[in-house]
């Protein structure tokens, strides 16, 4: 096929078979090879899509998604890549999407080995076969890789990124960790402070003040300190199966597995803290509360509803190991915490109270202030009062002899007509206002009533959804050292 003068995109991606080389190395090598090939064929490279992300799913490959968009828009005559499986690795569905985009736009797939024109039946079949084969091969490689990973873990190698306090190292060819003293000293400090009775917030504050900086955030928080205190890596262990990756629609979410599912083995790397200190910290932590972990489900009916009035942050739920949940502001020293049950009870109570207020309003038909209609009504009433006064003044004026009887009659007629007109307008404005308020109040009242009726019979996600159907947010405040129920809530309805 003559490719001379074609506008092309280049898609670059490292494959599993090229492990051992860095992504940059592989991509630059491929880029060179494809540019050489393009020059030989007279192909004009318009754009390059280098994939640095390593995900298998399409959604984990941002450059691929961008390329597909451009291919669908018919931006190129062809796409250059090293081989077919660079484009179409992933699930069968992903592969189908990729091939369809090329076929529909008539864009060629050009590899140094073969040119594919998917509008040609033979080529299409061949492409499908190739991607099918690469998928099989991928599965085999993946299985082998996992087995290798499990073997490494069993051998006590450390295969993930280095945790705080360590750096990656090798013993022979086995990956492991070495102590990185500038961080390790803070790890020891955290364990020692916690063992001495300080809480995670206070420990975080103290190490932050001494200049400790975590890897990915600006400063240590209660949660990041807790994670370090929980991590057996610091007594020279490797933990396997700490997290799972689940799929939620197109999103991939990392969740923490319960500790019973962890696989903890002795590792090659040195410990930072002693077993004795570790055990002491664990026994203290066992009696204290711990943040509820994200396992992808709604754990609390109040999830996402409560905000701290002080700092605007989301309130988080913490659960004591001995039982009992609290909602606290994650900003150290901000608001005092409150017991979960008290909050739930108060929120339901507040809703019930709001409902009572609304039904009362509905029966009383006395409108509440503050709409445009309300302002209109007020101004009509003011005009009416002025007209009544003017009418009353006419009697005084005629008594004082300012008008003749004819004049008085004429003016009186005029004043009465004006009052009738204003009265009509007043009634109209009042009805419009009552109507608007009634409709709104009645709708809200019905929604709240449903929430209160259904709430007890629902499971946790159901309760959360019910509350969110009527409440937009709840502002929370509680001063330090006040009684458990001395918090203040501002429930904002939708
Ligand atoms: Zn706060």
Report on this structure.
This protein has 494 residues and is α/β, with parallel strands linked by helices. The protein has three domains: 7-148, Resolvase, N-terminal catalytic domain (Rossmann fold); 166-296, Putative Large Serine Recombinase, Chain B, Domain 2 (Hect, E3 ligase catalytic domain fold, Alpha-Beta Complex); 342-493. The protein is 49% helix and 17% strand. It is built from 13 helices and 18 strands. The strands form six sheets. Strands 2-1-3-4-5 form a five-stranded mixed sheet, with helices on both faces. Strands 12-14-15-16 form a four-stranded antiparallel sheet. The protein has a three-stranded mixed sheet with strand order 13-17-18. Helix 1 (23-41) links the parallel strand 1 and strand 2 (44-50). Helix 2 (62-72) runs parallel beside helix 4, helix 6 (181-195) packs across helix 9 (275-287) and helix 11 (372-399) packs antiparallel against helix 12 (405-454). Residues 308, 310-311, 313, 329, 331, 334-335 line the site of zinc ion.
Topology:
Elements: E1 7-12, H1 23-41, E2 44-50, H2 62-72, E3 78-80, H3 84-88, H4 92-105, E4 108-110, E5 115-116, H5 121-154, E6 166-171, E7 174-179, H6 181-195, H7 200-209, H8 222-230, E8 237-240, E9 243-248, E10 251-256, E11 263-266, H9 275-287, E12 289-291, E13 306-308, E14 315-320, E15 325-329, E16 338-339, H10 340-364, H11 372-399, H12 405-454, H13 460-470, E17 471-477, E18 488-493
Parallel strand pairs: 1-2, 1-3, 3-4, 13-17
Antiparallel strand pairs: 4-5, 6-7, 8-11, 9-10, 12-14, 14-15, 15-16, 17-18
Helix pairs in contact: 2-4, 4-5, 6-7, 6-9, 7-8, 10-12, 11-12, 12-13
The structure holds zinc ion.
């Amino acid at each position: 096929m003559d490719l001379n003068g074609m506008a092309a995109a280049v898609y670059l991606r490292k494959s599993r078979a090229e492990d051992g080389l860095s992504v940059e190395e592989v991509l630059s090598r491929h880029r060179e090879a494809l540019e050489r090939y393009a020059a030989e064929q007279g192909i004009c490279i318009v754009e390059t899509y280098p994939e640095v992300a390593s995900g298998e799913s399409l959604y984990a490959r941002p450059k691929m998604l961008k390329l597909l968009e451009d291919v669908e828009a018919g931006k190129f005559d062809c796409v250059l890549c090293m081989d077919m499986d660079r484009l179409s690795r992933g699930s069968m569905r992903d592969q189908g999407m990729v091939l369809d985009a090329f076929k529909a736009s008539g864009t060629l797939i050009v590899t140094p080995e073969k040119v594919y024109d998917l509008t040609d039946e033979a080529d299409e079949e061949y492409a499908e076969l190739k991607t099918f084969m690469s998928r099989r091969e991928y599965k085999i490689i993946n299985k082998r890789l996992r087995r290798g990973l499990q073997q490494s873990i069993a051998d006590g190698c450390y295969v993930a990124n280095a945790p705080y306090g360590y750096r990656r190292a090798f013993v022979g060819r086995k990956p492991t960790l070495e102590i990185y003293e500038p961080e390790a000293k803070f790890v020891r400090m955290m364990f020692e402070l916690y063992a001495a009775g300080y809480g995670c917030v206070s420990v975080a504050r103290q190490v932050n003040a001494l200049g400790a900086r975590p890897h990915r955030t600006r400063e240590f928080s209660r949660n990041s300190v807790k994670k370090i205190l929980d991590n057996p890596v610091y007594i020279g262990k490797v933990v396997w199966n700490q997290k799972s990756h689940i799929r939620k629609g197109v999103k991939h979410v990392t969740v923490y597995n319960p500790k019973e599912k962890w696989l903890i083995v002795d590792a090659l790397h040195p410990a930072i803290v002693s077993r004795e200190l570790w055990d002491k910290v664990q026994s203290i932590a066992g009696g204290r509360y711990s943040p509820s972990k994200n396992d992808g489900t709604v754990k609390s009916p109040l999830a996402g509803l409560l905000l701290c009035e002080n700092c605007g942050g989301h309130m988080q739920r913490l659960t004591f190991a001995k039982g009992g949940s609290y909602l606290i502001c994650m900003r150290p020293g901000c608001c005092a915490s409150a017991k979960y049950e008290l909050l739930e009870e108060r929120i339901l109570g507040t809703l019930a109270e709001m409902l009572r207020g609304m039904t009362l309003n509905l029966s009383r038909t006395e409108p509440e202030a503050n709409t445009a209609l309300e302002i209109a009504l007020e101004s009509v009433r003011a005009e009416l009062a002025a007209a009544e006064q003017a009418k009353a003044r006419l009697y005084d004026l005629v008594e004082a002899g300012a008008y003749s009887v004819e004049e008085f009659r004429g003016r009186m007629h005029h004043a009465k007509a004006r009052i009738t007109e204003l009265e009509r307008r007043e009634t109209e404005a009042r009805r419009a206002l009552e109507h608007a308020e009634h409709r709104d109040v009645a709708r809200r009242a019905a929604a709240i009533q449903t929430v209160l009726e259904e709430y007890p019979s629902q499971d946790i996600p159901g309760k959360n959804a019910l509350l969110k159907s009527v409440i937009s947010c709840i502002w929370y405040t509680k001063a330090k050292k006040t009684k458990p129920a001395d918090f203040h809530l501002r429930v904002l309805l939708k």
